[in-house]
Structures are given as structure tokens and as C-alpha cells.
């Protein structure tokens, strides 16, 4: 006789074996690896943003990307996944709390595909949400405070990202039922981050003219590193959205490579016609715009269409960088031009070039209809309506959330002008991405002041950073003079002021 406890354990073991056995191990492994690749995009975004900013505010963006990632992980586990993908909500707008804290999320087939379990699907979709918010953090560039931004992150993911994801990816979402074609997130990820970044930048206001004048990225090598880390992770982003190790995933990877390459080349050529220089930042910007356009389209269109899309996106996104000047919104890192415009173009390409044969390569969506290639003429207005809905909702809701948070005491979104001038790394983080000793933070401070004879010698400006816990401004001898009247070198490598050479009997000494 088998003991009752042994029988219960045996029953549970058989149930767990059945839960694992209903899925192909290759599909599960492939999507798990793709989810990890998507996570690798987080440091890619951080490096990219850090390199594009001024040195005195470079670490703040790394911190904001890293911290927002942690906030979204908690939000997604708590209720984000449930609000986006719970199968019991039928309102078409947002989910319910059926899967609160990932309750009942285990071995059932996922809402996205029967090829993988829901537990894996929830992890994979969490990384999408993390990357979206990481992109959005670029709106903080050189003037945004990080603590209010983290509060904003939690609320924005709940009220903006989760509803849009529910619209198009939940089986009960209105866009899903209407037949919108959005493969890997043109609406939730790209329009959501790009248009919301524009709205957050509007809520923050423009940087001072002093900060905008003569602006250049402080480390283009980091820009290149971040771009190629993103490109690497993006192959998991788009390839994994086939939710299985199948031919549709490979087609999505191919289309992502082609679109990124062509867009990077076109953007770089357009910049060359003006500067007569081969801009690395321009190539990286174009590459990212091509990957953005491939996000909603790579699993729907043939390779020749991806080639055409890359060329068009590279040109249109390049010219779209002028929108921020027309709108008078300081979109410092061009979130709208690269992410929103790229996502919109990718969604429009689905309307024209989506092919049912490409969609059927996953072995699941074998009865799906494509776009104009399959004489599905109505797909164009369906895609346009979806684009308008995502754009309007993202901007209005983001602006409302940001303005509301800004009115709360201690949660003002923007730093003071004095803090911006000093640098956000110093005022918000207390550490520095590049803590130079011999070079001061501001361009205007590189050359010490030249003083005429008889003028009172001011103290030299303090250098960025602390030395062994003691601020430079408090160190003795920072710009002071020795008792014998000679200029003393500043502490920790500060450059001494330039003084007039002494004269003896009317002759200037060497």
C-alpha cells in the first residue's frame, strides 16, 4: 500500500512532468536566451545615453536607466503583467488583477503563443517593459531629477505602457481584435517611449542657452559601444517575438540586420553631405532608427521590403530631428525622431508589405492575413488609427502624469539652474562617469583667468569630485598663494592662475 502522502507527491510530480512535457525544450530555451539578450539592451541604452551627454551629467543617465529597470521589474511582478495580459479582463483597454504578483502564472500556454509557457512569457514581456522605460529615461538628459523620475516610472508603466500593451497583445484588447499588425512593439515600446519622451521633455522645459551652446557628446566611443550592444540585444528582441525557435524568428533577425544596416548608411550619408565628415554618431543614430522600424515589422515583411524600409527610415528619421526645433521642445537625445518616427514607419510598412507567408513561418499563425501584398486593403486605415491612438494617448497621459508629479512638494522634476550648471552627476549622484583631475568640468573653466598687475587674485575653481571624502573646495591650497607671494598650484592638479611676470628696474624677468 502506498501512503497518502506518497500518493500526493507522486500526483504532483506527474503534473509537473506534464507541464514541462507539453512544450518543446528548444522553443523554451530559445525564448529564455532571447529574454536575457533583451535584458542586455539595458546597459546598451545606458552606455549610449552616457556617451551622448556632457561629461558632467553622464553618470546620471546610467543611474536612471539602471534604477528604472529595477522599478519596472517590481511593478511588472506586482501587477504590470496582470494589467497587460490577464485573460479574464474583457474591456479591451486594460487587464484586471487575476495574475496579481504572478499568481496562477505557471505552466499554461502563454497568451502570446502556445509554443511557450506563461511563466516564461511573463519574463520575456517584462524585459520589453524594462527596455521601454530605459529608452524613456533619455528625456532626463542634463536637467531631470532622478527620484521624481522613479516615481514617474512606476506610474507611467502602470497607466501608459500596460494599457497599450493590452490593446495590441492581449487576446481581448481592442487593437488585437481589430487586426492591428504590431510584431514586437511599435506601439507599446517605440511610440510609447518616443512620444512619451517628447511629452516628458516638454514638461521639463528647455535647457538654458548656455547649456545648449556648443554641445557635443562627451564620449563617442561609448555611443558606439552602446549602439552595438543594443544591436546585439535587439536580435533577441525581434527574433524572440516569434515565441519559438522557428523560421519566422530567423526572418525577423534577417530583417532587423538589413534594416539597421541600410538606415545607418543612409543617415551617415545625409550627414556627410553637410559636414563632409563620416559621423560615428550619425551612423549609430541611423542604425538604431532602422532597428526601431524593424521592431513592429520584422516578423511580417519580406527581406526586400526590409531593405526599402531601412533606406526610407534612415532618411525620414534624420530629417525628423528638426521637429524638436519646430515644436520648441528640448528632446535632447532625439527620442521622438528615432523611436516614435521609426516605430510609426514600421507600422505603416506592415499595412503595405505584410505577407501571410512570412507570418505563417512560425507554424502557429497559419491563417493570418497580411497587408496590401495579400490584397488586404483595409489594413492601412487600421494601422493609421492604431498609430494615432497610441501617439495621442502616450503624449496626453505622460504630460498629465509628469505635470501632476511636478506639483507635489519635493517631487519637482527639474533641477535648479545652479544645479544644472554644476552638473547633474555632482548634484544628484555624487559620483562621476569620468572623474578627471587635471581638466575641469565646464568648457569655460579649462583656461585659467589671466590677471593684470594689481588685480586681486581669485581662487581657482574647484575640480569635479571628492578626494578621500573631502570636497576639493575644502582642501587647503586650492588656488591660494604661498607666504612668499608665489602662486601655489591648486589641490589635486588644479591649474594655477596666470600671473604677470615680475619687473625689476623696468625690465620684465623671464
UniProtKB/TrEMBL annotation:
The chain crosses the membrane at residues 28-49, 58-78, 119-140, 147-171, 183-205, 217-237, 249-270, 277-295, 301-319, 340-360, 380-402. It comes from the Eukaryota. SUPFAM superfamilies: Ammonium transporter. Residues 448-510 are annotated as: Disordered. It holds the Pfam family Ammonium_transp. InterPro entries: Ammonium/urea_transptr, Ammonium_transpt, Ammonium_transpt_CS, NH4_transpt_AmtB-like_dom. The keyword Membrane applies. One of its GO terms (molecular function) is ammonium channel activity. Gene3D superfamilies: Ammonium transporter AmtB like domains. GO terms for cellular component: plasma membrane. Its main location: membrane. It is found in: Cell membrane; Membrane. It is a multi-pass membrane protein. Keywords: Ammonia transport, Membrane, Transmembrane, Transmembrane helix, Transport. Residues 30-433 form the Ammonium transporter AmtB-like domain. Coiled coil: none annotated. Belongs to the ammonia transporter channel (TC 1.A.11.2) family. This is Ammonium transporter.
Amino acid at each position: 500500500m502506498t501512503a497518502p502522502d506518497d500518493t500526493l507527491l507522486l500526483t504532483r510530480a506527474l503534473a509537473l512532468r506534464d507541464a514541462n512535457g507539453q512544450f518543446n525544450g528548444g522553443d523554451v530555451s530559445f525564448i529564455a536566451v532571447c529574454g536575457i539578450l533583451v535584458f542586455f539592451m539595458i546597459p546598451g541604452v545606458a552606455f549610449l545615453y552616457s556617451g551622448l551627454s556632457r561629461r558632467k551629467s553622464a553618470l546620471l543617465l546610467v543611474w536612471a536607466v539602471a534604477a528604472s529597470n529595477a522599478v519596472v521589474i517590481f511593478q511588472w511582478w506586482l501587477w504590470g503583467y496582470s494589467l497587460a495580459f490577464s485573460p479574464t479582463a474583457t474591456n479591451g483597454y486594460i487587464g484586471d488583477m487575476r495574475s496579481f504578483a504572478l499568481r496562477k502564472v505557471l505552466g499554461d500556454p502563454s497568451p502570446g503563443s502556445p509554443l511557450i509557457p506563461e511563466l516564461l512569457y511573463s519574463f520575456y514581456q517584462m524585459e520589453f517593459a524594462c527596455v521601454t522605460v530605459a529608452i524613456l529615461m533619455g528625456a532626463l538628459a542634463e536637467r531631470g531629477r532622478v527620484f521624481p523620475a522613479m516615481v514617474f516610472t512606476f506610474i507611467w508603466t502602470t497607466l501608459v505602457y500596460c494599457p497599450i500593451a493590452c490593446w495590441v497583445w492581449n487576446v481581448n484588447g481592442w487593437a488585437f481584435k481589430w487586426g492591428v499588425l504590431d510584431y514586437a512593439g511599435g506601439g507599446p515600446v517605440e511610440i510609447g517611449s518616443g512620444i512619451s519622451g517628447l511629452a516628458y521633455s516638454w514638461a521639463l522645459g528647455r535647457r538654458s542657452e548656455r547649456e545648449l551652446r556648443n554641445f557635443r557628446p562627451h564620449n563617442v566611443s561609448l555611443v558606439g559601444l552602446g549602439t552595438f550592444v543594443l544591436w546585439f540585444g535587439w536580435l533577441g528582441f525581434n527574433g524572440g517575438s516569434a515565441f519559438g525557435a522557428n523560421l519566422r524568428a530567423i526572418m525577423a533577425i534577417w530583417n532587423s540586420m538589413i534594416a539597421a544596416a541600410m538606415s545607418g548608411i543612409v543617415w551617415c550619408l545625409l550627414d556627410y553631405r553637410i559636414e563632409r565628415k563620416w559621423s560615428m554618431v550619425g551612423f549609430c543614430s541611423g542604425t538604431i532608427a532602422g532597428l526601431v522600424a524593424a521592431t513592429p515589422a520584422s516578423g511580417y515583411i519580406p527581406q526586400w521590403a526590409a531593405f526599402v524600409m531601412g533606406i526610407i527610415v534612415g532618411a525620414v528619421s534624420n530629417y525628423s530631428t528638426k521637429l524638436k526645433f519646430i515644436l520648441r521642445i528640448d528632446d535632447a537625445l532625439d527620442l521622438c525622431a528615432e523611436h516614435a518616427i521609426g516605430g510609426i514607419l514600421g507600422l505603416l510598412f506592415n499595412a503595405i508589405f505584410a505577407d501571410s507567408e512570412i507570418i505563417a513561418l512560425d507554424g502557429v499563425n497559419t491563417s493570418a492575413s497580411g497587408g496590401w501584398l495579400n490584397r488586404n486593403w483595409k489594413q492601412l486605415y487600421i494601422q493609421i488609427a492604431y498609430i494615432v491612438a497610441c501617439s495621442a494617448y502616450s503624449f496626453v497621459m505622460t504630460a498629465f502624469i509628469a505635470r501632476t508629479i511636478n506639483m507635489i512638494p519635493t517631487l519637482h522634476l527639474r533641477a535648479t539652474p545652479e544645479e544644472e550648471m554644476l552638473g547633474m552627476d555632482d548634484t544628484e549622484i555624487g559620483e562621476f562617469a569620468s572623474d578627471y583631475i587635471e581638466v575641469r568640468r565646464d568648457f569655460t573653466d579649462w583656461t585659467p583667468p589671466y590677471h593684470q598687475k594689481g588685480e586681486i587674485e581669485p581662487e581657482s575653481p574647484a575640480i569635479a569630485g571628492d578626494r578621500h571624502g573631502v570636497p576639493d573646495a575644502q582642501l587647503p591650497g586650492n588656488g591660494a598663494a604661498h607666504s612668499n607671494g608665489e602662486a601655489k598650484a591648486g589641490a589635486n592638479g588644479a591649474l594655477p592662475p596666470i600671473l604677470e611676470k615680475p619687473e625689476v628696474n623696468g625690465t620684465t624677468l623671464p
